[in-house]
């Protein structure tokens, strides 16, 4: 029996679901390995206002659930598992998935990027005890409390705005006084009366692991080096993401930050292996661009398999 898959898709964010939809409709019976963070970044966000087709916006988790349902309707198979090892050197490609070895003619890497941490001495010990990278998941626990959000991009603005629903005050702490955030998001956050901006300020550590909860942050003024403590009950990080591509080191080309390098949008240097979405896109990183590149990867898979006579 031929147990070689036509296509395996790593990741179940926008890019993965779209690749699954297209390859399923092409009757390639894709297997989607959902990965560590099923649903990807959209499942951690709130209202998405810039995905075309939803004039009043749509909640991120609902959008991603719809995408999955749509792909499943055409026969995409989903498995809650992640790839621990991949060998791209031969045909078929072999993937280690738990105790199972999966063989496939083509691979679509749509493994996305995960939240970045600050790397503070006490940070890891306080994750789940007031340190969080997901406002949507954990904001509710800090109703009526003062909290901090770190970062100067759209993620930080979005988190800060979302957290005003619960918090009595949100301190937005950014290491510079210029922002990467889009003007509309920055304006909204700056105009919000519950959000205080603390700029040119670096977080030195989060307190207090001895109490097993966040009680404050030790901050340093980037201009004069002065340190001070800000009492808060939670620290939410909005400082960007790290691509989930480490397992391909030595097999695929990456840039200095570990994003997969692609040519013609989705081609890696290995024939039959394509990368799409945030794992290869450090520039746009939007739901719609991830979905678009998932579509491209799927069309290339179709073409590749056809050329190989499958
Ligand atoms: P980003 O734009 O790369 O911003 C990351 C922010 O974190 C920057 O302000 C950066 O500071 C700061 N930062 C990074 N490492 C840090 C560190 N070690 N210590 C302190 N600060 C640190 O990332 P993002 O906000 O996650 O956005 C990524 C993409 O997603 C963007 O294209 C964005 O437009 C998009 N996005 C869109 C929406 C929306 O439209 N609703 C929501 C979220 C994200 P520096 O500026 O000093 O480097």
Describe the structure.
The strands form 5 sheets. Strands 1, 2, 5, 6, 7, 8 and 19 form a 7-stranded mixed beta sheet that branches. Helix 1 runs parallel beside helix 6. The chain has 6 helices and 19 strands. The chain has 310 residues and is α/β, with parallel strands linked by helices. It folds into 2 domains: 178 residues, FAD/NAD(P)-binding domain (3-Layer(bba) Sandwich); 121 residues, FAD/NAD(P)-binding domain, CATH 3.50.50. It binds NADP nicotinamide-adenine-dinucleotide phosphate (NAP). The site of NADP nicotinamide-adenine-dinucleotide phosphate has 19 residues, from helix 4.
Q: From the alpha-carbon coordinates, what is the Rg to the nearest angstrom?
A: 21 Å
- The CATH class name of the largest domain reads Alpha Beta
What hetero molecules are bound to the protein chains?
A: NADP nicotinamide-adenine-dinucleotide phosphate
- The CATH level-2 architecture of the largest domain is identified as 3-Layer(bba) Sandwich
As for the number of domains, it is 2
Oligomer: single chain
| Total beta strand runs | 19
Strand content: 25-35%
Mass-distribution shape:
elongated
Number of helical runs? Answer: 6
Q: Any idea what the CATH superfamily of the largest domain is called? A: FAD/NAD(P)-binding domain
User: In which range does the helix fraction lie?
Assistant: 10-25%
Distance between the termini: 15 Å
* Largest beta-sheet characterization: 7 strands, mixed
Q: Provide the CATH topology of the largest domain.
A: FAD/NAD(P)-binding domain
Low confidence ranges: none
């Amino acid at each position: 029996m031929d147990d070689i898959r036509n296509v395996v898709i790593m990741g179940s964010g926008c890019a993965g679901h779209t690749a699954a939809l297209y390859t399923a409709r092409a009757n390639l019976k894709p297997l989607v390995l959902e990965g560590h963070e099923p649903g990807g970044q959209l499942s951690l966000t709130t209202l998405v206002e810039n995905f075309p087709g939803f004039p009043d916006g749509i909640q991120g988790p609902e959008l991603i659930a719809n995408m999955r349902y749509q792909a499943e309707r055409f026969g995409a198979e989903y498995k809650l598992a992640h790839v621990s090892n991949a060998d791209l050197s031969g045909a078929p490609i072999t993937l280690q998935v738990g105790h199972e070895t999966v063989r496939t003619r083509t691979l679509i890497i749509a493994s996305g990027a995960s939240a970045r941490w600050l790397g503070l001495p006490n940070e890891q010990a306080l994750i789940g005890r007031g340190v969080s990278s997901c406002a949507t998941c954990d904001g509710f626990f800090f109703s009526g409390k003062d909290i901090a959000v770190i970062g100067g991009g759209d993620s930080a603005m979005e988190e800060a705005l979302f957290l005003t629903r619960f918090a009595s005050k949100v301190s937005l702490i950014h290491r510079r006084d210029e922002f990467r955030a889009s003007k509309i998001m920055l304006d909204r956050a700056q105009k919000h009366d519950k959000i205080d901006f603390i700029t040119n300020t670096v977080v030195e550590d989060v307190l207090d692991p001895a109490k097993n909860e966040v009680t404050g942050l030790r901050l340093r003024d980037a201009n004069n080096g002065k340190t001070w403590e800000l009492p808060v009950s939670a620290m939410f990080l909005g400082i960007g993401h790290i691509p989930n591509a480490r397992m391909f080191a030595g097999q695929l080309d990456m840039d200095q930050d570990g994003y997969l390098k692609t040519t013609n949008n989705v081609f890696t240097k290995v024939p039959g292996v394509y990368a799409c979405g945030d794992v290869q896109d450090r520039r746009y990183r939007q739901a719609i661009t991830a979905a678009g590149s998932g579509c491209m990867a799927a069309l290339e898979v179709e073409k590749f398999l056809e050329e190989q006579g499958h």
